[in-house]
Amino acid sequence: MVSRKLTEMMREECRICILTGAGISAESGVPTFRGEDGLWKRYRPEELATPDAFARNPELVWEWYRYRRGIIRGVAPNPGHYALAELERRFSAVTLITQNVDGLHRRAGSRHVLELHGNIMQDRCQRCGAVSAAADARNAEPVPRCRCGGLLRPHVVWFGEPLPQQVLADAQAAAEACDIFLAVGTSARVYPAAAFPLLAIRAGAYLVEVNTEETPLSGEANEVLTGKSGDILPMLLAGTGEQR
Ligand code: BV8
Ligand code: ZN
Protein backbone atom coordinates (compact mmCIF):
# COMPACT_ATOMS: atom_id res chain seq x y z
CA MET A 1 0.00 0.00 0.00
CA VAL A 2 2.47 2.68 1.11
CA SER A 3 5.50 2.77 -1.20
CA ARG A 4 9.00 2.10 0.09
CA LYS A 5 9.97 5.61 -1.08
CA LEU A 6 7.33 7.27 1.12
CA THR A 7 8.16 5.01 4.06
CA GLU A 8 11.86 5.89 3.73
CA MET A 9 11.08 9.61 3.44
CA MET A 10 8.94 9.51 6.58
CA ARG A 11 11.65 7.70 8.51
CA GLU A 12 13.79 10.84 8.27
CA GLU A 13 13.13 14.36 9.48
CA CYS A 14 11.12 16.01 6.69
CA ARG A 15 8.80 19.00 6.22
CA ILE A 16 5.22 17.84 5.79
CA CYS A 17 2.28 19.91 4.50
CA ILE A 18 -1.23 18.48 4.63
CA LEU A 19 -4.41 19.72 2.93
CA THR A 20 -7.63 18.18 4.21
CA GLY A 21 -11.17 18.36 2.87
CA ALA A 22 -14.58 17.09 3.94
CA GLY A 23 -13.51 13.47 3.35
CA ILE A 24 -11.41 13.35 6.53
CA SER A 25 -14.50 14.15 8.61
CA ALA A 26 -16.81 11.73 6.76
CA GLU A 27 -15.95 8.85 9.15
CA SER A 28 -16.88 11.13 12.05
CA GLY A 29 -20.37 11.41 10.57
CA VAL A 30 -20.04 14.87 8.99
CA PRO A 31 -21.62 14.66 5.51
CA THR A 32 -19.29 15.68 2.67
CA PHE A 33 -20.33 18.21 0.07
CA ARG A 34 -20.37 16.00 -2.98
CA GLY A 35 -20.91 12.53 -1.56
CA GLU A 36 -24.09 10.47 -2.01
CA ASP A 37 -25.56 12.00 1.17
CA GLY A 38 -23.67 15.23 0.34
CA LEU A 39 -24.68 18.49 1.91
CA TRP A 40 -25.13 19.97 -1.55
CA LYS A 41 -27.63 17.20 -2.38
CA ARG A 42 -30.37 18.54 -0.22
CA TYR A 43 -29.48 22.14 -1.00
CA ARG A 44 -27.91 23.90 -3.97
CA PRO A 45 -24.57 25.64 -3.19
CA GLU A 46 -25.64 28.82 -5.02
CA GLU A 47 -28.70 28.90 -2.71
CA LEU A 48 -26.64 28.72 0.43
CA ALA A 49 -22.88 29.35 0.66
CA THR A 50 -22.73 32.75 -1.09
CA PRO A 51 -23.17 36.38 0.11
CA ASP A 52 -26.06 37.10 -2.22
CA ALA A 53 -27.85 33.92 -1.12
CA PHE A 54 -27.58 35.34 2.42
CA ALA A 55 -28.77 38.76 1.28
CA ARG A 56 -31.70 37.16 -0.54
CA ASN A 57 -32.71 34.55 1.99
CA PRO A 58 -30.86 34.79 5.33
CA GLU A 59 -33.44 32.55 7.02
CA LEU A 60 -32.71 29.65 4.64
CA VAL A 61 -28.94 30.08 4.96
CA TRP A 62 -29.29 30.11 8.78
CA GLU A 63 -31.47 27.00 8.63
CA TRP A 64 -28.71 25.17 6.73
CA TYR A 65 -25.96 26.28 9.10
CA ARG A 66 -28.03 25.41 12.19
CA TYR A 67 -28.62 21.97 10.63
CA ARG A 68 -24.86 21.52 10.08
CA ARG A 69 -23.95 22.88 13.54
CA GLY A 70 -26.34 20.33 15.04
CA ILE A 71 -24.51 17.53 13.24
CA ILE A 72 -21.06 18.85 14.21
CA ARG A 73 -22.06 19.24 17.90
CA GLY A 74 -22.79 15.50 17.91
CA VAL A 75 -19.59 14.19 16.29
CA ALA A 76 -16.02 13.49 17.42
CA PRO A 77 -12.66 13.38 15.67
CA ASN A 78 -11.81 10.03 14.06
CA PRO A 79 -8.49 8.11 13.81
CA GLY A 80 -7.55 10.14 10.74
CA HIS A 81 -7.70 13.43 12.71
CA TYR A 82 -5.77 11.89 15.61
CA ALA A 83 -3.07 10.50 13.31
CA LEU A 84 -2.43 14.00 11.89
CA ALA A 85 -2.25 15.44 15.42
CA GLU A 86 0.33 12.75 16.33
CA LEU A 87 2.27 13.48 13.11
CA GLU A 88 2.60 17.09 14.28
CA ARG A 89 4.11 15.84 17.55
CA ARG A 90 6.58 13.55 15.75
CA PHE A 91 7.92 15.95 13.12
CA SER A 92 9.21 19.45 13.72
CA ALA A 93 7.81 20.94 10.51
CA VAL A 94 4.17 19.96 9.95
CA THR A 95 1.60 22.44 8.54
CA LEU A 96 -2.03 21.37 8.43
CA ILE A 97 -4.19 23.33 6.00
CA THR A 98 -7.88 22.52 6.18
CA GLN A 99 -10.86 23.47 4.03
CA ASN A 100 -13.13 22.12 6.74
CA VAL A 101 -15.00 24.44 9.08
CA ASP A 102 -15.91 21.71 11.63
CA GLY A 103 -13.05 22.34 14.07
CA LEU A 104 -12.31 18.59 14.38
CA HIS A 105 -8.53 18.95 13.79
CA ARG A 106 -8.14 21.22 16.82
CA ARG A 107 -10.38 18.93 18.89
CA ALA A 108 -8.08 16.03 17.92
CA GLY A 109 -5.07 17.98 19.24
CA SER A 110 -3.60 19.54 16.09
CA ARG A 111 -2.23 22.94 17.09
CA HIS A 112 -0.80 24.48 13.90
CA VAL A 113 -4.01 24.49 11.81
CA LEU A 114 -4.66 26.90 8.95
CA GLU A 115 -8.46 27.13 8.63
CA LEU A 116 -8.80 28.40 5.05
CA HIS A 117 -12.57 28.72 5.14
CA GLY A 118 -13.19 29.74 8.74
CA ASN A 119 -15.04 28.00 11.54
CA ILE A 120 -18.74 27.12 11.49
CA MET A 121 -19.00 27.42 15.29
CA GLN A 122 -18.36 31.18 15.20
CA ASP A 123 -20.60 34.07 14.15
CA ARG A 124 -19.54 37.35 12.57
CA CYS A 125 -21.53 40.60 12.49
CA GLN A 126 -22.21 41.91 8.99
CA ARG A 127 -22.15 45.47 10.30
CA CYS A 128 -19.38 45.81 12.94
CA GLY A 129 -17.39 42.67 12.11
CA ALA A 130 -17.40 41.41 15.72
CA VAL A 131 -16.68 37.67 15.89
CA SER A 132 -18.37 35.63 18.64
CA ALA A 133 -19.01 32.02 19.58
CA ALA A 134 -21.98 30.57 17.71
CA ALA A 135 -25.21 32.16 18.85
CA ASP A 136 -26.87 29.67 21.11
CA ALA A 137 -29.27 27.52 19.09
CA ARG A 138 -31.90 28.38 21.69
CA ASN A 139 -31.53 32.00 20.57
CA ALA A 140 -33.74 30.85 17.81
CA GLU A 141 -34.42 34.12 16.05
CA PRO A 142 -34.54 33.07 12.39
CA VAL A 143 -31.67 35.50 11.74
CA PRO A 144 -29.66 36.34 14.92
CA ARG A 145 -28.54 39.93 15.44
CA CYS A 146 -25.45 41.50 17.00
CA ARG A 147 -25.70 43.95 19.92
CA CYS A 148 -25.04 46.69 17.37
CA GLY A 149 -28.16 45.63 15.51
CA GLY A 150 -26.28 44.17 12.53
CA LEU A 151 -27.15 40.73 11.14
CA LEU A 152 -24.98 37.84 12.33
CA ARG A 153 -23.64 35.34 9.80
CA PRO A 154 -21.52 32.21 10.20
CA HIS A 155 -17.81 33.15 10.33
CA VAL A 156 -16.97 31.12 7.23
CA VAL A 157 -15.72 32.01 3.72
CA TRP A 158 -18.48 31.78 1.12
CA PHE A 159 -18.07 31.28 -2.62
CA GLY A 160 -17.03 34.57 -4.20
CA GLU A 161 -15.47 35.79 -0.93
CA PRO A 162 -11.72 36.19 -0.47
CA LEU A 163 -9.88 33.88 1.93
CA PRO A 164 -8.19 35.48 4.97
CA GLN A 165 -5.00 37.06 3.60
CA GLN A 166 -2.56 35.84 6.27
CA VAL A 167 -3.91 32.27 6.25
CA LEU A 168 -3.64 32.19 2.45
CA ALA A 169 -0.05 33.45 2.53
CA ASP A 170 0.98 30.98 5.26
CA ALA A 171 -0.63 28.08 3.39
CA GLN A 172 1.10 29.03 0.16
CA ALA A 173 4.49 29.33 1.88
CA ALA A 174 4.08 25.92 3.55
CA ALA A 175 3.02 24.25 0.31
CA GLU A 176 6.08 25.64 -1.47
CA ALA A 177 8.54 24.67 1.28
CA CYS A 178 7.54 21.10 2.07
CA ASP A 179 9.19 17.78 1.20
CA ILE A 180 5.94 15.78 1.38
CA PHE A 181 2.45 17.14 0.59
CA LEU A 182 -0.52 15.00 1.68
CA ALA A 183 -3.88 15.81 0.02
CA VAL A 184 -6.45 14.04 2.20
CA GLY A 185 -10.20 13.67 1.59
CA THR A 186 -10.63 16.50 -0.87
CA SER A 187 -12.29 16.48 -4.30
CA ALA A 188 -9.70 19.12 -5.26
CA ARG A 189 -12.31 21.27 -7.01
CA VAL A 190 -12.52 24.40 -4.86
CA TYR A 191 -9.95 27.14 -5.40
CA PRO A 192 -7.63 28.56 -4.29
CA ALA A 193 -7.30 25.53 -1.88
CA ALA A 194 -7.03 23.08 -4.77
CA ALA A 195 -4.00 24.97 -6.06
CA PHE A 196 -1.82 24.17 -3.03
CA PRO A 197 -0.97 20.54 -3.98
CA LEU A 198 0.00 21.76 -7.46
CA LEU A 199 2.20 24.50 -5.98
CA ALA A 200 3.87 21.88 -3.80
CA ILE A 201 4.67 19.44 -6.58
CA ARG A 202 5.95 22.28 -8.75
CA ALA A 203 8.28 23.27 -5.92
CA GLY A 204 9.64 19.71 -5.82
CA ALA A 205 7.53 18.09 -3.08
CA TYR A 206 6.45 14.44 -3.14
CA LEU A 207 2.66 14.61 -3.58
CA VAL A 208 0.55 11.90 -1.94
CA GLU A 209 -3.24 11.71 -2.32
CA VAL A 210 -5.37 9.88 0.28
CA ASN A 211 -8.92 9.45 -1.02
CA THR A 212 -11.61 6.80 -1.46
CA GLU A 213 -12.07 7.87 -5.10
CA GLU A 214 -10.15 9.32 -8.01
CA THR A 215 -10.01 13.13 -8.22
CA PRO A 216 -8.55 15.68 -10.66
CA LEU A 217 -5.43 15.52 -8.48
CA SER A 218 -4.90 11.75 -8.81
CA GLY A 219 -3.13 12.09 -12.15
CA GLU A 220 -0.72 14.69 -10.72
CA ALA A 221 0.17 12.82 -7.54
CA ASN A 222 3.41 10.88 -7.10
CA GLU A 223 1.46 8.36 -5.00
CA VAL A 224 -2.26 7.65 -4.63
CA LEU A 225 -3.35 5.79 -1.49
CA THR A 226 -6.91 4.67 -2.15
CA GLY A 227 -9.04 4.07 0.92
CA LYS A 228 -10.45 5.73 4.01
CA SER A 229 -8.28 8.36 5.66
CA GLY A 230 -9.23 6.86 9.05
CA ASP A 231 -7.44 3.66 7.99
CA ILE A 232 -4.59 5.03 5.86
CA LEU A 233 -3.32 7.90 8.02
CA PRO A 234 -2.71 5.70 11.12
CA MET A 235 -0.83 3.30 8.83
CA LEU A 236 1.32 6.14 7.49
CA LEU A 237 1.99 7.25 11.06
CA ALA A 238 2.97 3.70 12.10
CA GLY A 239 5.74 3.76 9.49
CA THR A 240 7.40 6.84 11.00
CA GLY A 241 9.89 6.62 13.82
CA GLU A 242 10.32 9.27 16.51
CA GLN A 243 11.79 12.14 14.45
CA ARG A 244 11.83 15.00 16.92
C1 BV8 B 1 -12.33 33.03 -4.04
C2 BV8 B 1 -16.91 27.18 3.69
C3 BV8 B 1 -11.79 35.12 -4.98
C4 BV8 B 1 -18.38 27.41 3.79
C5 BV8 B 1 -16.39 26.62 1.36
C6 BV8 B 1 -10.26 29.83 -9.76
C7 BV8 B 1 -9.43 30.58 -8.91
C8 BV8 B 1 -9.96 31.21 -7.78
C9 BV8 B 1 -11.34 31.07 -7.47
C10 BV8 B 1 -12.15 30.33 -8.32
C11 BV8 B 1 -11.63 29.73 -9.44
N1 BV8 B 1 -12.65 29.09 -10.08
C12 BV8 B 1 -13.78 29.27 -9.39
C13 BV8 B 1 -13.52 30.03 -8.33
C14 BV8 B 1 -14.50 30.45 -7.34
C15 BV8 B 1 -14.68 29.44 -6.22
C16 BV8 B 1 -14.48 28.02 -6.62
O1 BV8 B 1 -13.40 27.45 -6.43
N2 BV8 B 1 -15.54 27.42 -7.13
C17 BV8 B 1 -15.49 26.01 -7.46
C18 BV8 B 1 -16.86 25.40 -7.21
C19 BV8 B 1 -15.05 25.88 -8.90
N3 BV8 B 1 -13.78 29.77 -5.14
C20 BV8 B 1 -14.16 30.74 -4.29
O2 BV8 B 1 -15.17 31.41 -4.43
C21 BV8 B 1 -13.24 31.03 -3.13
N4 BV8 B 1 -13.00 32.44 -3.08
O3 BV8 B 1 -11.79 32.47 -4.94
O4 BV8 B 1 -12.36 34.39 -3.91
C22 BV8 B 1 -11.83 36.51 -4.56
C23 BV8 B 1 -10.62 37.19 -4.38
C24 BV8 B 1 -10.66 38.53 -4.04
C25 BV8 B 1 -11.89 39.18 -3.85
C26 BV8 B 1 -13.09 38.48 -4.02
C27 BV8 B 1 -13.06 37.14 -4.37
C28 BV8 B 1 -13.88 30.66 -1.82
C29 BV8 B 1 -14.13 29.19 -1.75
C30 BV8 B 1 -14.55 28.80 -0.33
C31 BV8 B 1 -16.00 28.36 -0.31
N5 BV8 B 1 -16.35 27.88 1.04
N6 BV8 B 1 -16.63 26.21 2.63
C32 BV8 B 1 -19.09 26.21 4.34
O5 BV8 B 1 -18.47 25.15 4.54
O6 BV8 B 1 -20.29 26.36 4.59
S1 BV8 B 1 -16.09 25.46 0.19
C33 BV8 B 1 -16.50 23.93 0.76
O7 BV8 B 1 -16.59 23.10 -0.38
C34 BV8 B 1 -15.44 23.28 1.60
O8 BV8 B 1 -14.83 24.16 2.48
C35 BV8 B 1 -14.48 22.69 0.61
O9 BV8 B 1 -13.51 23.63 0.23
C36 BV8 B 1 -15.39 22.46 -0.56
C37 BV8 B 1 -15.75 20.99 -0.62
O10 BV8 B 1 -14.66 20.38 -1.07
P1 BV8 B 1 -14.08 19.12 -0.26
O11 BV8 B 1 -13.68 19.54 1.10
O12 BV8 B 1 -13.07 18.55 -1.15
O13 BV8 B 1 -15.31 18.15 -0.06
P2 BV8 B 1 -16.05 17.28 -1.19
O14 BV8 B 1 -17.32 16.79 -0.59
O15 BV8 B 1 -16.08 18.06 -2.46
O16 BV8 B 1 -15.08 16.03 -1.41
C38 BV8 B 1 -14.87 15.10 -0.38
C39 BV8 B 1 -13.77 14.17 -0.87
O17 BV8 B 1 -13.47 13.24 0.18
C40 BV8 B 1 -14.16 13.35 -2.08
O18 BV8 B 1 -13.09 13.37 -3.00
C41 BV8 B 1 -14.38 11.93 -1.51
O19 BV8 B 1 -14.00 10.95 -2.46
C42 BV8 B 1 -13.43 11.93 -0.36
N7 BV8 B 1 -13.79 11.05 0.75
C43 BV8 B 1 -15.02 10.77 1.23
N8 BV8 B 1 -14.90 9.97 2.32
C44 BV8 B 1 -13.58 9.76 2.53
C45 BV8 B 1 -12.86 10.45 1.54
N9 BV8 B 1 -11.51 10.44 1.48
C46 BV8 B 1 -10.85 9.74 2.43
N10 BV8 B 1 -11.47 9.05 3.41
C47 BV8 B 1 -12.83 9.04 3.49
N11 BV8 B 1 -13.43 8.34 4.46
ZN1 ZN C 1 -22.25 44.22 15.21
Q: What's the quick description here?
A:
The chain is of the alpha/beta class and 244 residues long.
Describe the structure.
This protein is an alpha/beta fold and 244 residues long. The chain folds into 2 domains: 4-29 and 76-117 and 162-238, Rossmann fold (3-Layer(aba) Sandwich), CATH 3.40.50; 38-74 and 124-156, 2-Layer Sandwich (SIR2/SIRT2 'Small Domain'). It has helices at residues 4-9, 23-26, 39-42, 45-48, 51-56, 58-73, 79-90, 104-107, 165-177, 195-202, 229-238; strands at residues 16-20, 94-98, 113-115, 118-125, 131-133, 152-156, 180-184, 206-211, 223-226. The protein has a 6-stranded parallel sheet with strand order 3-2-1-7-8-9, with helices on both faces. Strands 5-4-6 form a 3-stranded antiparallel sheet, covered by helices on one side. The radius of gyration is 18 Å and the shape is elongated. The model has no long low-confidence stretch (mean pLDDT 93). Bound molecules: ligand BV8 and zinc ion. Ligand BV8 binds next to helix 2 and strand 8.
Summarize this structure as a short list of keywords or feature phrases.
6-stranded parallel sheet, binds zinc ion, alpha/beta, SIR2/SIRT2 'Small Domain', 244 residues, 3-stranded antiparallel sheet, binds ligand BV8, 2 domains
N→C terminal distance: 26 Å
Q: What is the β-strand count? A: 9
Main sheet specs = 6 strands, parallel
By secondary-structure content and strand pairing, the structural class works out as alpha/beta
How much is the radius of gyration in Å? 18 Å
CATH topology of the largest domain: Rossmann fold
* Helix content range: 25-40%
- Give the mean pLDDT: 93
In CATH's first tier, which class of the largest domain applies? Answer: Alpha Beta
Q: Which ligands occur here?
A: ligand BV8, zinc ion
Tell me the overall shape: elongated
In CATH terms, the superfamily of the largest domain is: TPP-binding domain
Relative strand content: 15-25%
